[in-house]
Design goal:
Blueprint: H1 10-29, H2 34-47, H3 53-63, H4 67-85
Helix pairs in contact: 1-2, 1-3, 1-4
Length: about 100
Amino acid sequence: MSGCHSAPSDATIKQLSAVYADFLIAKRLNAGDSIATAKNIDSVLKRYDFSSIQEMTDKIKAVGDDPDKLRQLFDSTQRRLESFQNGKMTWPPVDKK
C-alpha cells in the first residue's frame, strides 16, 4: 500500500530547482578537474542545506509523485540554466534579497 504524499509547496519547488540547476552548473564549470568539481558541488549542497547528493536527488525524485510539480521543477531549472548561459546569472549565484 502506498503512502499518501502531499504535493510539494511552490517554495520547495523553487529551492529544488535552484539546487538542481546550481548542481548541474557546478559539475560543468570544472568538468576536467575532479577536485574543483567536488568543491563546487559541496558548496552548492551546503548553500541549500543538503547533507549529500543522495538527499538532494531523493527530494527531487519525490516530486515525481506529482507530474505537474515535476514539470514546474524542470521548467524552473531550465530557466535558471538559461539565465546562467545568457550571462544573467553569475557563479556562484547571488540570491536577490
